[in-house]
From TrEMBL:
<dbReference type="InterPro" id="IPR004345">
    <property type="entry name" value="TB2_DP1_HVA22"/>
</dbReference>
<feature type="transmembrane region" description="Helical">
    <location>
        <begin position="41"/>
        <end position="64"/>
    </location>
</feature>
<keyword id="KW-0472">Membrane</keyword>
<protein>
    <recommendedName>
        <fullName>Receptor expression-enhancing protein</fullName>
    </recommendedName>
</protein>
<feature type="transmembrane region" description="Helical">
    <location>
        <begin position="85"/>
        <end position="108"/>
    </location>
</feature>
<dbReference type="Pfam" id="PF03134">
    <property type="entry name" value="TB2_DP1_HVA22"/>
</dbReference>
<keyword id="KW-0812">Transmembrane</keyword>
<comment type="similarity">
    <text>Belongs to the DP1 family.</text>
</comment>
<keyword id="KW-1133">Transmembrane helix</keyword>
<dbReference type="GO" id="GO:0016020">
    <property type="term" value="C:membrane"/>
</dbReference>
Amino acid sequence: MDQIKNQLQQFRQKLDGIEPLEKAEQATNVPKEYLTIVGTLVLFSLIFFSIGAGSMTSIVGFIYPAYKSLLAIESKVRGDDTQWLIYWVVYCFFSIIELFADMILYWIPFYYAFKLAFLLWCMLPQTRGATFLYEAFLKDFLKSQESKIDQALEDAKKTAKVIGHEVGSNVKEMVSGVAAAAASSEGDKKDD
């Protein structure tokens, strides 16, 4: 029992200085270490039982890395920039695969719990999972497909330009037609 109390005391010390937890502790009269433990259990229970799990895992996979990326941009150290850029490449690649495999993934039990674990493994500096995946698999694949990706992007750019031009022309014709109809309607009213 003393060991548990010691662990809780150490955990409490790590939570010191986190203002939202301090306010929550004062408002509820519940120690912040208990609030954190219960909150974490509720979060993992929601994910485990797939109650809002898709949104929850996407938020976890995005919020912390986005915050750390902003800090990395502002810091003078360049190693953390590379780590977070690699994370975003892996995250995007994973999201694209997930988009196309969505119907299959829906049937995997506890998929979102696995996804959360995977994203945490990828993002945490202690594990550097994204760096491992990039170095082991993605780097060579992306380099071998670089010309195809560049060509696909160039084709998409040309197509978007053509579509934009066509939409602009159609809007211009439509506005001209509406203006002509309005002018004709005005002329008819004056004649009456």
